[in-house]
Amino acid sequence: MTERTEGGGVFSNGSVTAQPSGELDVGQQAVSGRIIFRPGSQNWAALAAVAALGLTACGSQPQPAPPVEVPGDPEGTDQPEGTEEPPETDQAQPGTLAEFCAGDPQVQPEDEDRILHGVNVITGEGPEEVPVPYFEQLASSEEFQPATQQSPAEGVEAPEFSALICDSSTDGAYAALSHWFEFLHHAELTRDNEYLAQLHMEDCRDCAVWETDVEDMAAENQWLVGGEIFGELYFSMPMGEGFEAVVDLVSDPYERVDPEGVVTTSVGILETNTFELVFDEHQGHWRVAGIAPGFVDTDPGNDSDDDGGTPPGAGESPEQPEMPSEVEEHSPEGALAAMDYWLEVFDYSGATGDMEPAEQMMHPEWGELESLFEGRLELIEQENVTIALDTPTEISEVRVWQGSLPNPEAGMVSGQLVEGQWTAYAEDGTVFHVNREHEIGTTTYMFIYNDDVGHWQAAETGGNEPEEVFELMEVEIPEPDLTRD
Which of 109, 28, 148 is nearest to 440 (CA)? Predict the structure, then answer.
């Protein structure tokens, strides 16, 4: 049975941050919105502070970023004397889609490149990439300069409007979907929602999370390097007077930077969203009315049990893990046992909403590890789903430093993390969301041995190599005290 209801991983942005209220997140990664992948993160100085005691991150005041240059309107030419017809000139497109569509634009041959065929993965078809001509437009621009760690993008042209978006047919809906990816990219390059906001209905569900991230970047003088988002269509169909499309949002790794340097990094994006589109008669073009957690009900006849038990198809209800006695040992073996137990707690508390084991394992004076659970807890509370654990979260190629750290109370565990798969089931037993098994890559945790409770507790986490932590501590990296394949 094909189930294209996956979302990206809870650890996908490689850092721990609190999420803005009012948005539905799944784990650390929100179901909708890039703000999940690009939050302001804990930095490696925080991890080093745990290991070294007293080391703090400091720096000079940020300097304003270079201004983003946007080309002005092309200038016309005067009509030559002795001619009745003015020479042909490039006409600047109107500043809004509404003005553009009010001019009754004609569909051009290149506009038809935005039309999708409307795949259906339930019947075994493969995904279809959403066309984003804006990427090619920028690549061919002589003025455009991509963002770097030193400066944001410059010479950013406005996306070229397609007349198809003014057409109330299904083709127009596909054009609007194509434009959404273009306008999002423009917004992230310029840190300005001028075009993206035009495409969002005023009451659009979950649209604000995308606009908020852009606004936050502008307010915090930050920009993105890399990570353009593109889409893969998995399912689409008319819904009443509107249109729905289930799309995977995908991006390569990227960085969020400011004048001081890299703020956070991400391994990229992989999440599924359902786009609800409507034709706005007043504006004269298609718009986005909702961006919701994406799912396809691949087994609509799969109803829940009459006794209200676990929905059919769900795995066994997770049982609360028991803390191993090794977690109480003040040793490298104890720190490793704490890492393994923490991942069991991560799976259990996120699936059941029972946060007591997690709270026992989180050090009260360090970090914001609660944010790792927020999305799934909101999913359980807001959508009343049942979460089943399909595969566990595990870590391999482990290295442990404990006795060799400057702070004898600290233990650092680093390895290759794989977030387990879990499935959320609606009350009627249908699949609501699948968070597929996801290879996170190198993840480093800091634990503190808390004498008050008599065991190790998690303090901080980050997504890069432990060598960076030792570099911040200005100490040569020692051999690990313990390793495990």
Answer: 28
